[in-house]
Amino acid sequence: MSRAAAATTRERISINADWKFSRFTSNPDSLSYDKLKAWVLPCANDFIKGTKRQRPSGTPPGNDVNYVKSTFDDSSWESLTLPHDWAVKGPFNAPGIGGGMGRLPSNGVGWYRQKLNIPSSDIDSGRTLFLDIDGAYSYAAVWLNGNLVGGWPYGYNSFRLDLTPYAKSGDNTLAIRVDNALESSRWYPGAGIYRNVWLVKVDPVHVGQYGTYITTPIVSSSSATVNLVVEVENDKNTSQKVDVVTEIYVLDTGSGKAKGSVVATFPTKSVTVASGAKGSASASVEVSNPQLWGPPPKQTPNMYLAVTSVKSSDGTVVDVYETRFGIRSIEYNANKGFMVNGQAVRVNGVCNHHDLGSLGAAFNTRAAERQLQMLQEMGSNALRTSHNPPAPEMLELADRMGTMVLDEIFDCWRAGKRSSDFHLIFNDWHEPDLRSFVRRDRNHPSVIAWSVGNELSEQSSAEGGSIFKELQSIAKDEDPTRGSTVAMNSAGPNTDLAAAVDIEGLNYQDGAYGSFHSKFPNKMIWGSETSSCLSTRGTYLFPVTKSNSETVGGANNGGDGTNLQVSAYELYPPSWGSSPDRVFSAQDHSSFVAGEFVWTGFDYIGEPTPYDSARSSYFGIIDLAGFKKDRFYIYQAHWRPDFPMAHILPHWTWPDRVGQVTPVHVFSSATEAELFVNGKSAGRIKKGQYEYRFRWDSVVYQPGDLKVVTYKNGAEWATDTKRTAGDASKLNMTSDTTSISGDKLAFITVAVTDKDGVVSPRASNAITFSVTGPGFLVSTDNGNPADFTVFPSKTRKAFSGLALGIVRANAGASGTITVTASASGLSGASVTLNVG
Ligand code: GAL
Where is the signal peptide (predicted)? Predict the structure, then answer.
């Protein structure tokens, strides 16, 4: 009953298509946040506990700007589909944007315009119309039909505006302005409306924004108590009495739909809601034999769907609202670590920034899923959303895949890190941003804790403790079921902050685990940020340090400042970091530590430490194109000890190193290994305690092959081979999928190989992609942090033998796409993709 009613009661319509856009490097309209502020502040009222903010009377600023008017001719503006990141197409070396922010033109004012058709039936029936923006960077302000509706400054948060007072039947002119300062971030922020945008149409009596809250306070394998709060909003001018009915189904995570029949029904609750007000209904139900949510491989991420119907007094269903949730318990245990459903689960996490490589900040579900899949293959079970709220779909993926999320909101508080970052608006916005963030994300079982800040300037002062306590109390008020933490890189155990946090989150402070543990014997500790190891895929520099971790430096210390590359022996962090080996050792010496979040899972645009003149980071375990660095395998070896694998580095094609010492390292989940160089044993060795790689540091290079045979518990475990490649002769192309449609992309890898298919590990041939059929090439990349070819370029030089092309189907198309790659002097390759 209730699901069928949904279509007529509530509609959530994507309005990503058919936008017009223009970017201005200097302010085209003399508007600014200062001028708009008084009208924007009241948009936060749903997320403020104290005195509400009043919208000023009088004509709002900007109502006279041409871009907001229906008469403005935008035919010369760019046509596009959201999500959109205006900066990612380049060019690099944008004036005023340094390496930290990725050298791409993210600054300036962007205007987006759309004709929004609203049928007269919506207006006549008095429906309430909301605009939901999942993320727009930044200082978004919205006009409908020449009237300022409102806005939201923090570019990473999702927000809702009520369009109803300004809407009319027929064509409406929707205009959105975003405004980005030069120095707004420490990393590449992206620019514009980079997430999904929705038009939500509801009956005036409806479930509010993020209007359900589901918790599971008592969980066992035989039974679970599920508590529900539903908030109903009444936009009618008379008070309304409604019944709230909620049924629980098993969620089919593949389709996102309910599966089978009703599992449990909450008792019906009646609530009377005054005109213009909100009212809430609470209920509780037992679910027997619950299918619990938990991270693989030991647990399964089962999900449920709660379908809430709001019935008016005459029995009409006026709203149907769906909430996905999971049944699980969590505990932060000071000695056993993080517990899910009573079982300790070591946190094998990574930190990631929000960009998706050559797609920039423009969110794409398949691109995010590809990231999580690769991380799971590595054995990672957790993600820290450094340092800002993720796209909502990222959490849906995490729920479905069983990835635990440390959901983080801020990189700074009152004291900024850049001249125009969040500190400028912290006082006005920390409460509404934090409340809306927690309210948005609190039904996701994947979210295991709230991180309310990263490496704050205030961390060691009394102010740090007091700001944290205020943020913690806001988060607890919205969600008492999870703890709040921060990522501390310098605050010691004697700070107010360390005393206040629910989880001790330590960035790089591996040496302080013991002192935190003795000071706080009842608090869980984790490495909220670890390692920061640096490397470029496929680049090996000699000599190789004998140490298991060495600060990156000049030629002898893993760095090549001329070509802006760092050696992939995976031993070279910056001064504050450590190789993976050293972090593993520190953690294994302190068994009470719950785990770590490695900086970072994927390379990201910006922050190209140690070479600021490059474009993208060296920190990733996986490069910017999504190609695995060698480091992937040291994590896989450690995090998936039962998975038979072995991985040799470096590659074995060194015409210029014949007769020279060329160390060979192997990452493997085995305990013993023997290396063969052209069939001759270079020695069988055992991994010692607190050692995480096999190394043969005196191997002398001769062309041919390397083979490693590994052993565990006395039996052969896994092998790997590396062969010297002959001359580059052809291209090899593989796609991650055989069919695409809508926004589902194909990620296509091209390798330069010799005639036998051995990848030429140093090939840098220029590869040209072409697409025929109903689709197009979105972008290309190769993972080289020093490649300044723009991302949309059809020609991309291979880097260490590989290049990536990303292909998308035309909207609504069907048929077959052929993607071809060609390179001068090499035979080409192609793949076909089905569309639809
Ligand atoms: C940390 C910081 C991260 C990133 C990292 C690089 O201190 O939290 O955002 O800058 O250093 O190593």
Answer: none
One-letter amino acid at 505 equals G
Q: Is residue 707 part of a domain?
A: no
Residue 713, both tokens = 């518990």
Q: Which residues contact 215 (CB under 8 A, 6 or more apart)?
A: 226, 227, 481
Residue finishing a domain among 157, 180, 202: 202
The ligand 1 site (C-beta within 6 Å) comprises 386, 454-455, 489, 507, 529, 532, 577, 599, 607
Q: Rounded to the nearest whole angstrom, what is the distance from the C-alpha of residue 66 to the centroid of ligand 1?
A: 42
Q: Is residue 345 domain-shared with residue 249, that is, in the same domain? A: no
Rg, Å, the chain Cα set? 27
Q: Cβ-count burial of 336 within 10 angstroms (0-12 exposed, 13-18 middle, 19+ buried)? A: middle
Instruction: Specify the ligand 1 atom closest to the Cα of 386.
Output: 9
DSSP result, 22-89: EEESS-SS---HHHHHHHHGGGGGGG-SSSPPPPPSSPPTTTTSGGGSTT---TTSEEE-SS--TTTT
Average the pLDDT over 467-484 and give the result.
98
Containing H/E element for 207? Answer: strand 205-219
Same domain, 265 and 194: no
Contact 310, 270 (CB under 8 A): no
Q: Which residue has the tokens 């062309």?
A: 703
148 in any annotated domain: yes
pLDDT digits (tens, 9 = 90+) for 279-309: 999 999 999 999 999 999 999 999 999 999 9
Q: Are 282 and 269 in contact (CB under 8 A)?
A: yes
**What span, in angstroms and rounded, lies between the C-alpha atoms of 558 and 180?**
37
CA 620 to ligand 1 centroid distance, Å: 12
User: What's the gap in Å between 219 CA and the centre of ligand 1?
Assistant: 37
Give the nearest ligand 1 atom to 489 CA: 7
Rounded to whole angstroms, the Cα distance separating 489 from 107 reads 30
Query: Which residues have CB under 8 Å from 518's CB, separation 6+?
Result: none
Instruction: Note whether 205 and 224 are within 8 A (CB).
Output: no
CA distances from 688 to 9, 109, 650, 670, 834 (A): 65, 57, 22, 12, 51
Residues 283 and 371 in one domain: no
Say if 345 falls within a structural domain. Answer: yes
Active-site positions read: 455, 529
For residue 368, report the distance from its CA to the centre of ligand 1, in Å.
21
**Could you give the C-alpha distances from 788 to 616, 783, 785, 823, in angstroms and in order?**
10, 11, 8, 19
| pLDDT tens for each residue of 259-277 | 999 999 999 999 999 999 9
- pLDDT digit string (tens) for 810-828? 999 999 999 999 999 999 9
Q: Is residue 48, in this structure, part of any structural domain at all?
A: yes
Q: How many domains does the chain have?
A: 4
What are the structure tokens assigned to 357, written together? 């490589």
Residue closest via CA to ligand 1's atom 12 equals: 532
